[in-house]
Amino acid sequence: MTPVRALVARAFATLMLGALVCLFPARAQTQPASPLAPPASAYSSAVAYEWFYLVSQLIQQTPGNSPPVAARTLGYLGLTLYESVVPGMPGHQSLAGQLNELSSLPWAQPDEPLHWPTVANASMAMMTRMMFSNASAENKGRIDLLERSLPLKYPDDFDPSTVTADITNRSETFGKLMAMAIMTWARTDGGHEAWGPLRRTRANYVPPSGPGSWSATPSKYLPPLLSWWGEVRPFVLKSAQDCVPPPHPPFAEEADSTFFRAAKEVFDISNAATQEQRQFALYWADDPAKTPTPAGHWSYIANDLVRAQKADLGRAAATHALLNMAMSDAFVAGWAAKYRYNLIRPVTYIQLFIDSNWVTPLFTTPNFPEYPSGHSVQSSAAAGVLEQQFGKDLKFVDNTHNDRGWGPRTFPSFSAAANEASLSRMYAGIHFRFGSEGGQTQGRCVADKVLALRLKP
């Protein structure tokens, strides 16, 4: 986005947010839930589960949902869910005032009771429609159908004997206004509609040249993906520079150098990979258009855990907000580092200095620089948040890829899963070990920043 367009967009967002908060009092502090209505903790996480389950499919089936874009979408949906129900979470507060350039959001009137599942259903439906505005007609119909069907599917949460028409209408209005307010803010982050008009206004990225520099990789030699994504406004990080990976080993061609040995390790593994290593690489590939992407994979895990542990609506909202914002910020920070270091990929290095006939063994190298590994950054960020939410040593089952014949799989902890996801990129031949390890360091930093948010005063 050009500086002029960015200024205009932010001015428009300010006006829109002002109009919205005039309809409901602005808020940045804790407000007690209405004594006239049960709190969000009185309801199950069913609404949250159903919407994030559908979103995992929409990410896979909607054009343009590359991994950074999908993570951003999940981040805004998680925040929308939390902000919609936090007025019904006694002792909790809005994140307005803590997130970048988000000073206030609508707040509910304490003397007018709201029904929190209805609020959440309305806000998630509207935000999902806006985030997937280019979805197919069939999938737009699925969004409409889910919104209509949830009150019928979960009568315990949507008890018609207690939820009057007046409460329903007021709750739906509040949920929609919240989604509109957050989307107004989202449109100013520089990443909105990355698959469409905004991308076409940007100049083509010309990667720097020189020894060790990234260049387009075989077999398709695609142009670099979202080279400007590191400039997208994060949710929590003040900038992408808040969390950076450690420096990678200096580029070198000599056989006794650290860099050469790292490339030789990738080459040797590709020639003698175990069946287990190949399975890890394929399991964590999480390719766009075929899967929910890496962020969608971890969101799926969290969604299953929320349901398995019978979490209430408030806890589900907090979990989805923290997890998905962390993964979105991880992609912003990771992408900024990728295009700052602009490091050569293993396939290029190996073909130049080890074996000119070598190709990646399982799938094509992605079209962006090597360092750090994006999977490693976001997986470590996700694991850090989930450890805080569910415990460091929780044994869990991952059902994300059951329909593809790759699961279910059981992991002893979130860190074990994140480590496997990170190393899987080396097993696939598309990252050096130091790219995976540097990404893990960066991801843990992102998790720490997000977990420093104050959900309670």
Labels describing this entry:
single chain, 4 strands, elongated, 457 residues, mainly alpha, two-stranded antiparallel ribbon, two-stranded antiparallel sheet, Vanadium-containing Chloroperoxidase, domain 2, disordered N terminus, 15 helices
CATH architecture of the largest domain: Orthogonal Bundle
Flag low-confidence runs: 1-26
- Within the CATH hierarchy, at the fold level, what is the topology of the largest domain? Vanadium-containing Chloroperoxidase, domain 2
Helix content bin: 40-55%
| Beta-strand percent range | under 5%
Total helical segments? 15
User: Cα-atom Rg, whole angstroms?
Assistant: 22 Å
Distance between the termini: 36 Å
> Number of DSSP strands?
4
The profile of the biggest β sheet is: 2 strands, antiparallel
Strand order of the largest sheet: 1-2
What is the succession of H and E elements?
A: HEHHEHHHHHHHHHHEEHH
Spatial shape: elongated
Q: Helix/strand/pairing class, anyone?
A: mainly alpha
Task: Indicate how many domains the architecture comprises.
Answer: 2
Average pLDDT for all residues: 92
Can you identify the CATH class of the largest domain? Mainly Alpha
Task: Provide a concise account of the structure shown.
The protein has 457 residues and is an all-alpha fold. It has helices at residues 3-23, 46-61, 67-85, 116-131, 137-153, 165-186, 197-200, 258-272, 275-283, 293-308, 313-341, 346-353, 374-390, 414-427, 433-451; strands at 26-27, 105-106, 396-398, 409-411. It is elongated.
